[in-house]
Design goal:
The chain is of the alpha/beta class and 337 residues long. The chain has 9 helices and 10 strands.
Length: 337
């Protein structure tokens, strides 16, 4: 594309909040390219090492951006703005994406758009059809966050409930670690659970008032249960791995479902969306659809590629910000907490 029409809004979006370096191109609200470079080095340590993550971002960001531009058939001079994730996330990782975006926007003399990571997860629902109508409720579940958000408009929302301690994604990963599964463990729990019996083992449900969440007690209960069983049978995990994964997964999902059902009743909203990295979990996706059928909900779940950290969701949020002319001062672009 040698020249863009005046009406075209073309944005390059950068996502670098954790250990995935991602770049996407959006044109007039349509995703043209969405590329991600993952970092396998963290598997050796059983979790993300911030220093290694930031160094890998420095190595990956230029190639990922170049690939996204090439796939979209877009040149730098075609861009209308540069968007980046300003937080929350690992500060070193965020700095790489922010510095790159600011430098590029400054060199091209085009606007800079800062995007909140969790807002981007919610607005991923506007990438493809069907799209939710306002107001809708979004159950946002990731490794760092668990929230029920009432979306009144693209950037007008209320957090109705959130975790008081750990997030659902962290609970999945901790359970996986207890079971001796490699990092990242959450997807492996989902994988093994598909051949397990979710009713084989029972774990206590957190008793948190209103629309709050808590997963620390559930994790502790799971740990103590495993330790007790292994004292009696050293091969307990190996002999029951699929059932253990299915059972702890059911306990986590049940806690999530109880709260979103309650939120729907309280608000009388029946458009329910699922977002965040944990929304890639097959059992959670299936359960929310089943609950939707029981409760006459219209349910919305992003495609798998838009569930985990990606730049397409940042690009979609940036498109709406561009329409509102909400830009960052390039010299003082902040991080979000």
């Amino acid at each position: 594309m040698s020249a863009k029409l005046q009406k075209d809004i073309i944005i390059l979006a950068i996502e670098s909040s954790c250990d995935d370096t991602a770049a996407a191109i959006i044109c007039n609200g349509k995703i043209l390219a969405n590329k991600v470079a993952s970092q396998n080095i963290h598997e050796l340590y059983g979790g993300v090492v911030p220093e290694l993550a930031s160094r890998a971002h420095q190595q990956n960001i230029v190639p990922v951006v170049e690939i996204a531009l090439k796939e979209a058939n877009i040149s730098l001079k075609d861009l209308s703005a540069i968007a980046f994730t300003k937080g929350p996330g690992l500060i070193g990782s965020l700095m790489v994406g922010c510095s790159f975006a600011k430098s590029l926007a400054l060199s091209l003399t085009i606007p800079l758009i800062g995007i909140h990571h969790m807002e981007a997860h919610v607005l991923a629902h506007f990438i493809d059809d069907p799209k939710p109508g306002f107001p809708f409720l979004c159950l946002t579940v990731s490794g760092g966050h668990t929230q029920i958000v009432k979306m009144n408009d693209y950037f007008s929302f209320e957090i109705l409930g959130k975790t008081i301690d750990d997030a659902a994604g962290e609970a999945f990963d901790k359970a996986a670690k207890i079971l001796g599964l490699p990092y990242p463990g959450g997807p492996l729990v989902d994988q093994y659970a598909q051949s397990g019996n979710p009713d084989k083992f029972k774990f206590p449900q957190p008793q948190i008032p209103e629309l709050g969440f808590s997963f620390s007690g559930l994790k502790t209960s799971f740990l103590y249960f495993i330790q007790k069983q292994e004292k009696e049978n050293p091969n307990f995990i190996e002999e029951n791995l699929a059932d253990l994964c299915a059972s702890i997964q059911k306990a986590i999902i049940l806690h999530l479902m109880k709260k979103i059902i309650k939120a729907s009743v309280q608000t009388e909203i029946k458009e329910i969306a699922l977002a965040g990295g944990v929304s890639a979990n097959s059992a959670l996706r299936k359960t929310i659809i089943e609950e939707g059928a029981k409760n006459n909900w219209l349910t919305y779940i992003p495609a798998f590629e838009y569930c985990t950290d990606n730049a397409a969701m940042v690009a979609m949020a940036a498109h709406f910000k561009y329409l509102l002319k909400e830009f960052e001062p390039i010299t003082t672009a902040p991080f979000a907490r």
